[in-house]
Amino acid sequence: MENKLNILTSEAVALLKEMVAIPSPSFREDAVCGHVSNWLTSKGIVHERVGNNLVAEHVVDPGRPTLMLCAHIDTVEPCEGYGFDPYNPENCPEDMVQGLGSNDDGASVVSMSAVYRYFACTKDEGEDAPVNLILALTCEEERSGVGGMTGLWSQLQSKVDFAIVGEPTGMKAAVSERGLLVIDATAHGMSGHAARNEGKNALYIALEDIDLLRKYEFEKVSPKMGKVNLNVTQINAGSAHNVIPDRCDFVIDIRPTEQYSNLEILEDLQKVCKSELKARNLANKSSATYEESKLQAAAEKLGIETFSSATTSDWMRISCDAIKMGPGESTRSHRKDEFVYIDEVRNAIETYIEFIHTL
Q1: Using alpha carbons only, what angle is made at residue 105 by residues 102 and 110, rounded to the nearest 5 degrees?
Q2: Which one-letter DSSP state was computed for residue 78?
Q3: Integer angstrom CA distances of residue 304 from 88, 130, 175, 349, 355
Q4: Torsion angle, CA of 308/309/310/311, rounded to 10 degrees?
Q5: Distance set, CA 57 to CA 46, 68, 135, 278 (Å)
Q6: Angle between helices 107-120 and 2-20 (to 10 degrees)
Q7: For residue 24, which of 92, 71, 91, 81 has the smallest C-alpha distance?
Q8: 37 φ, ψ to 5°?
Q9: Paired sense of beta strands 243-244 and 321-324, if any
Q10: Residue 305 gets which letter from DSSP?
């Protein structure tokens, strides 16, 4: 097993470097998708390309449940301040892979691909998975595009019983993740001359609503995530010092829990606010592992630490039981000089294999 793990890690790291060298921001994943597809084929992994998504299925026994291993192949655009070429992973310390997408989410992509290959193509006698496996490598995750898991899930839903969503968590198991609800609020007033105290000041209406929102308490508290988080983060009003503003716009950033749908939160807040509230997107829901989850039980049996994640992922686009767990650290994502340690990739491959056996 040790020698096989060394081979899987070496090949995974080589693929990761090749992926980093191919620019793959959301909606422009065609080249990296083709490259990973060719790699899967070269390793004997039969798969289907669905747009810029890659799906492979290993059926051990049609009567057994199916576990999906899911990670995304797209990246954000490189931020400013990189100390090296974000698309050149070669000139880096021997113990790591540097570059855009190395941590988020390339490390999960190559680790999960290696694990799928271990069970589907290179297993020893008696080492098959106790569950059927689906490998789903998706596009457009960073920008919530409809061509990624959003559209793919309708094809996979009937086959998948539970899932591991690969994201950089330090191989801790997220048993919940907050959603994201951004609301654009507009307070409407009536303009007038400030010297004569004319009109109806929309800024004051907005301030009243903002004070109400600052004190607002959602009744239901999540046992996994706690209270819904709400913050007003932007405000804009007025055209001149002597004109009473007839409009004031402000933005509300909300991180929901599984206790509320995004629509419920929007409707509840609209009942108490005078300002007009409009959600930018209602689809970024929160997620939580099911009660009495086999996934959580396996994590606990292996001594894997569980936690609640503050960031969203493809988890919000699927409807089965799931956890979020992958190599790397979330704090390295979407920042300059992104990297992942090779030992983190190796540990991920080993942990995923052990986790699947534990199921």
Answers
A1: 80
A2: P
A3: 33, 20, 11, 14, 10
A4: -160
A5: 8, 9, 6, 41
A6: 140
A7: 71
A8: -60, -45
A9: unpaired
A10: -
pTM for this entry: 0.88
Tokens of 346: 């190796």
Please give the span between the terminal C-alpha atoms of the chain, in angstroms, as a whole number.
19
The tokens of 80 are what? Answer: 């400013």
- Tokens in use for 46? 């039969």
Q: Which helix (H) or strand (E) holds 262?
A: helix 262-272
> How far, in Å, CA of 354 to CA of 44, rounded?
22
Rounded Cα–Cα distance for residues 194 and 153 (Å): 56
Would you call 135 helix, strand, or coil by DSSP? strand
Task: Tell me how far apart the alpha carbons of residues 343 and 96 are, in angstroms, rounded to a whole number.
Answer: 8
**DSSP symbol at 75:** B
What does the pLDDT profile of the chain (359 residues) look like in tens digits?
Answer: 788 999 999 999 999 999 999 999 999 999 999 999 999 999 999 999 999 999 999 999 999 999 999 999 999 999 889 999 999 998 888 999 999 999 999 999 999 999 999 999 876 655 688 999 999 999 999 998 999 999 999 999 999 999 999 999 999 999 999 999 999 999 999 999 999 989 999 999 999 999 999 999 999 999 889 999 999 999 999 999 999 999 999 999 999 999 999 999 999 999 999 999 999 999 899 999 998 999 999 999 999 999 999 889 999 999 999 999 999 999 999 999 999 999 999 999 999 999 999 98
Structure tokens at 292: 């009495």
Alpha carbons 289 and 356: distance in angstroms, whole number: 17
